[in-house]
Specification:
Helices cover 32% and strands 26% of the residues. By secondary structure, the chain is an alpha+beta fold. A hairpin with a 6-residue loop joins strand 8 and strand 9. The protein is globular, with a radius of gyration of 20 Å. The two termini are 33 Å apart.
């Protein structure tokens, strides 16, 4: 374990003092970190048995543990708990400044009624959400994270009644960064809750994300008994949320807004010391036995 950490530190720190000015110490570090991730393809069976994901062509999958590390330790976001994994492009390393991902979560909130889908004024909703961020940013800053500004809809909310799928996308800025983040949200309604697909990318990746929404959606299938049409009003829980409520949900929800902060870090040299700290956390997680928690785990999205 210590030898592995020493090797990683050497990859980052020693080249900084090397005589060869062409050595890119940051890239050496990122390549070494990238080599520790275990990507999967093919069929993914989720532990909660809600359904199956068949990883679409051109993509690969990082499991829940690795996804939490990327979201929290590598990208620097709060939350990440309850995440079931990440779908990422096959041709882009997750440590690359060009990386982006679909974060997969399941929220067992109950059966979401869609009666209000045609009656929502999403422009008014956007204004309300922008105002809410003022108070919510106080909590973020207390926790040491950059404040959020919702610039506007990157893609206005749309509900597909036939497929029971809700889409919307926000353009977001974090702190004083000139690099805006895209959060493209998809909710697949089911009998007992919703599957959450949150595409996190830079704004210039919006066309690429849109192109891949359908292949990614087609890759997931609810298990028998979990589909929307399986709802039994006599025994099933009805969610407190409606379609409009899903879009207007609190900005600080764990599966709501994530920053692709690796791009911002890249612009200032990737803050090598912080990245080394993240790497050490990752290697400890990979090599040390899990500890038993004596408190309940919150798995809500």
């Amino acid at each position: 374990m210590k030898q592995l950490i020493t090797l990683m530190l050497s990859c980052v720190l020693l080249p900084a003092f090397a005589a060869d000015p062409e050595v890119d110490s940051t890239q050496v570090f990122l390549d070494s970190l990238e080599s520790t991730f275990h990507y999967q393809e093919g069929e993914i069976k989720f532990d909660n048995n809600v359904g199956i994901l068949k990883v679409p062509q051109g993509f690969r999958y990082l499991d829940a543990d690795q996804a939490r590390f990327v979201i929290h330790d590598l990208w620097g976001n709060p939350g990440g708990e309850g995440t079931m994994g990440m779908i990422v492009p096959s041709n882009i390393p997750i440590t690359s400044a060009e990386s982006w991902a679909f974060i997969v979560t399941y929220d067992e909130m109950g059966f979401v009624k869609d009666d209000d889908a045609d009656d929502i004024d999403y422009d008014d909703m956007l204004s309300d959400m922008q105002e809410e961020t003022t108070e919510e940013n106080k909590e973020r800053e207390q926790e040491g994270y950059d404040p959020i500004s919702i610039i506007g809809w990157a893609s206005k909310p749309f509900y597909d009644k036939d497929k029971k799928v809700l889409h919307w996308a926000k353009e977001i800025s974090f702190g004083n960064s000139d690099v805006h983040t895209l959060n493209y949200n998809v909710r697949v309604l089911g009998r007992k809750g919703v599957l959450v697909l949150n595409a996190v990318a830079s704004m210039d990746a919006l066309p690429t994300v849109k192109e891949n929404i359908d292949p990614v959606l087609s890759a997931f299938q609810y298990a028998d008994g979990y589909q929307y049409d399986d709802f039994d009003p006599g025994i099933d829980k009805v969610a407190a949320w409606t379609v409009g409520g899903l879009v207007a949900g609190k900005v600080l929800a764990k599966a709501g807004i994530f920053a692709l902060l690796l791009k911002n870090i890249k612009l200032i040299g990737l803050a090598i010391v912080g990245m080394v700290s993240a790497a050490i956390k990752w290697f400890r997680r990979k090599t040390e036995p899990p500890t038993v928690k004596e408190f309940p785990v919150d798995n809500q999205a």
